Amino acid sequence: MIKPWLFEFFVAPGPPGTAVTPQAATEHYNWYLDLWQKAEGCGFEGIFFSEHHFGPAYSPSPNLIIATMAPRTRTLRLGVMGMVVPYYEPWRVVEEISMLDHLTGGRLEIGTSAGIPNEMAMVGLSVAEARARNDEALAIVDAALLTGKVTHKGKYWSFENLPIVPRPLQQPSPTRWTTVVSIESAKKAARRGSRIATSFHSVERVKDIFDAYREEADRAGNPSGPEQLALRRTVTIAAREAAAQEAGAIMAKVLSQIVAADPRVTREPVPDAPGPSHSFAVSEDELIAGDPGHVADQIVAQCRAVGAGHFLGIINMVAPKPAILEGHLLFGSEVIPVLRQAAV
Hints:
Blueprint: E1 3-8, H1 22-42, E2 46-49, H2 62-69, E3 77-80, E4 83-84, H3 90-103, E5 108-113, H4 117-121, H5 127-147, E6 149-153, E7 158-163, E8 176-179, H6 183-192, E9 195-198, H7 203-220, E10 229-237, H8 241-259, E11 287-290, H9 292-306, E12 310-315, H10 321-341
Parallel strand pairs: 1-2, 1-12, 2-3, 3-5, 4-5, 5-8, 8-9, 9-10, 10-11, 10-12
Antiparallel strand pairs: 6-7
């Protein structure tokens, strides 16, 4: 079975750079809250929100969205893919995680990320410092989630027998995820016992990353099967193939504009050999477009090729709102049943 999730970039209303009135922003939030509530009836496993700052997305504090969605849903898993840990005090991250786990009734998924270089640069945070903070913070988060009390002495944080309350509802911890674009990051996550999600790369490169994760997890004695791996893709879906392909071409242009500011993005694919590079090229495999049958076939083929048990879809991201809603309903009624029957 391939478990289907929504990945919500939550694009800002209007073209990039245009002024948005407070009323329009409120209406935008309310429309999406209603959309995400409908996702429960569509059969999605859950929703992963994203954290972005200073750009074309409207989710700088996705934990607030989770708290808002918790009473509006009953079965959807809710998480962030991922919370940018270097921006925060790690003890507060654990406290928020624990609170949200109770507010969602034990439906929380924990996702973390080291951050996006161009966003971090705007607040004076270098990639090197962010990675160092991320590694140290995750060690604190992992220890605090498992024990409720943590002692740590490091470069950025030091404390002794720090009590973390409340304890999460899911014991010993909600499921942990890490967003990765490199083999190095996948191996780190495997040693921690964290699941991983990746995107942008070609199917071949994703397989290399997942193979490295599986090998490292096996060495560490941690789970390494399809349940640990998620493939995230940008999906354009419509009832008619021609309409989907036309909208998909627009989506491809917008995506290239969104990622253009990220210094990790390269014109040519990154070599498939293992190495420390965190660079990536946006592969044609990232963009899935078509009618429901064509979309389902592409998702199943990619997930089988890389061994992913989870699929995270950004659906009709830049389409008009009626087409966004239609896409979610089509995906739920015609694609999700296929995914749930597919063997990996």
